[in-house]
Amino acid sequence: MALPQNAETARLRLAMVGVVVLCLFAAMFARLWYLQVMASHTYVTASINNQVRRIFEPAPRGRILDRQGRVLVDNRVSEVVTISRVEASKDPVTLARLAALLQTTTDELNRRVADPRFSPYKPVPVAEDVDKSKVIYIREHQEDFPGVEANPTALRTYPYGTVAAHLLGYVGEINDSELAPRKSKGYRQGDDIGKSGVEQSYEDVLRGTPGVTTLEVDSQGNTIRTLSVRPPEQGHDIQLTIDLDVQKLTEESLVQGLDTVRSTVDKSTGNHYPAPAGAAVVLDPRDGSVLAMASVPTYDPSAFINGIKPAVFQQLQDPGSHFPLNNRAIQGLYAPGSTFKLATASAALKTGLITAAYGINDTGSLKVGNRVFHNALNESYGHISLTRAITVSSDVYFYNLGNMFWSQRGKYGNAIQDQAKALGFGVKTGIPLTGEANGRIPDPDSRKRLHDQNPKAFPNGQWFAGDNVNLAIGQGETVVTPLQLANAYATFGNGGTVYEPRIAAHVLDHDGHVISDIKPKVVRQVPLPPDVRDPILAGLKGAVSDPKGTAHAAFAGFPTDAFDIAGKTGTAQVVGKEDTAVFTSFAPADNPQYEITVLMEESGFGGTAAAPVARRVYEGLAGKPVTPIQLGGGVD
Amino acid sequence: VAIQSGRQDPAAAWRHLDITLLMTVLAVAGYGIVMVWSATRDKLAANGSDPSYYLKRQIVFVVIGLALLVLTASIDYRVFRDFAPIGYVGTIFVLLAVLSPIGSKSKGAQAWFQLGSYQLQPSEIAKVVLIVCLASYCAVHRGDLDGRRLLVVLALALLPMALIYKQPDLGTDLVFVAILICMMLVAGARPRHMALLTALGVVGVVAVLQLGVLKHYQVDRLSAFLNSQTDVQGSTYNLNQSKIAIGAGGITGKGLFKGTQTNLSYVPEQHTDFIFTAVGEQLGLVGSIALLALFALMVWRTWRISTIAKDLAGTLICVGILAMLVFQMFENMGMTMGIMPITGIPLPFMSYGGSATLAEFAAIGLVLNVHMRRFS
Fold first, then answer.
1. How many angstroms separate the CA atoms of B108 and B267, rounded?
2. Most buried one in A122, A298, A413, A584, CB count within 10 A?
3. pTM value?
4. Model confidence over B296-306: pLDDT tens digits?
């Protein structure tokens, strides 16, 4: 080599260049190794995702049937026109043309395109139930309607309108918190999901499997070929324990009862009863099946189809509307009033505090400590035993029991509360519906706990004799749901079996074949030996049949050949409001097939207002002519 | 006497031809032709065009390139050395011409002459001419590059670079920088001058980025590889698709003509700047390593020739061409793999394109030239 004088330096510098080159090649090799060996799997996935597009088609939901197979919730096909937001913003002429075709205004379409409820990446629905001929027109003139699509969509339809709205529930677009735990189940943004009621509880049964079409696409999104097609599979049908006839009858009777009460004047105040709301439950005590469940006021579930309009939703949330979305049968918390005497009476007999023969002279009031407790309207019933006390609903008799339990608390503890909870008062029934309230049965410990936790809100941490007296007649802090009350009396009626209320009986395929049964579920047994049960049952029968019974007037003229009804009225005082009217009952009394509970807010006496509603339902159940509601008499 | 006869008898020099280098170059060029075909066949067919359009043209480029190689190898490189000043002036003139209305604009750069259905990109040729010029100037001064001569070298390089920057073609300018650094180093620049230039370079880069000399899209593209997750559809789209193609190839690749990234046009500019993704996806690690090995062989032979050249001019020509080839390989493959910024630099002998292919063949012709005449 003929390098100049500093040849050695040049050689060194050439070697440096060589080393640098070597390093660069080593770096490329290392990077290649990383991409093609170590991290290759992630790029393989990315490459498949690149070239494969999945088009999802929602499956029609399963139908909801009543116990006789009548369809309560069905599907119908609606042609929905959608437009892509990108295309809509590109050319205003498209929207104007579409508005003309759909016989609406551009402003209206713009308003729908701007609807924030829809994802910006998905086409926005701008018209539903579009005429088939217009759909065909759009498809034939697709070049005039860039970004506009019309697709058949399965929508929920309610053949019986608002019947059983709370129980059936409604369907809506899945939200983020619902989606997060369900991604693994194949839910996607924009999917429909049951939001309440049966639609929510039996979502997995009803949903079905969405269809998937897999396409190979190029970088422009052009379809190269279809790789696979899986058509959507409709969800299974669910057959409820609800009987449409009973449900309708119950709802009608409750509404009629509330209407009648509203037209009545409370003599003590001179005002009309407000009677804004109520709930009624019909159970089968033999297996816990719910035959009917009504909550008034109600709402129209079809308002939720394609997303509820904000104005409608606002109205449903307005306090003046009395919260029609609430299912009062499971969410409403009410003082049970005298219906709670079932717990007190059975606790007293069971623990041996008294025997059925134990009698007192009811003078209309009882002094406990320095406080005097009165019967309703200060009635006095004279010499009465337990059975009689139930029939006429003597508060004094039960004040006395509450006081006795308190003075012997060392021996009996919280016997009333224990028995109440065993029967299901203040305990979730476990009905497969979300939002069921707990209720509350207070005791000295729970009161102390509340006081210790928050002394300001609960200034009184101590339990007095007067609290036990109030507890004994279902007043004070005790609150239960209508369903808990119904289930407690169903338990008593069937001899002590506590069922978890059941709303669905079968899962069916689309041809009506049973896929699986939803079996009755026994939660626990409450021992009710004859010496406990018989005197109480006699008292409950008397409440309806004895001329002095609190529900007797309400059932005057009821066809005696139909049912022998056992029941209990209740009139629960609510601070600052009219009383809650309560009636709970079962029939036939000795072998009950039905348990009917009715609660009416701010409606006065249970025997006057609530019992007639139950009577009307019994008439229907017995196959007798249904008579208009006539308010009964009675003082409880 | 032997030297004299060597100079006068053209056939004598060919006896010392570096067959290994020539075969390596031909192998890579052949590999490139197949890859250009695989990267364009389906897209052309989808458009209803002739699926072998680019294949045929690349074959033509390689054949012309080979002829050019024979030409540049045949004429003693010392003749080129002696005529270097004329070549330099001619190149500057052509680079000026391309900026005038005679030149035409494509993909945002005023960098081409349109000749019928072919385009000539003078900046590709300018690289090779500048290498010869710098080698000649340094050789004249027998490797004694004092500060004043170094400034001349810098000035010689900066003039064409400035014209190319005007086009604008930042990538080619970067190749010039690599060539310049390597040649100054080997030509005997003082270490303190090299250190000073490095410092100036760093300051210059910072200043260019800070003062907004570069256009926004240029900075975007240059820095995209640093944070490739920022904007999947924007400036990092090319990079992500490119990495997906290479990574999805795995060890053995998806098979020739079976690359989905390739066939479904997910990698933009795949037959030109992103040709390496076609290798990576279809032929996998095996094909990529094979290409890397061929490149290594090509670079090693060039480096070896630089060490055994007869004179400093020969050494520096080889060093300049080595710098050009290595920088283009590293920058091009590096950008497809996400370790270098994205710039429009072709992969030697692989990327589709006439001017680059011709310039590269001419360059290798010069290297062969130096080897053939190492005794004369």
1. 20
2. A584
3. 0.67
4. 999 999 999 99
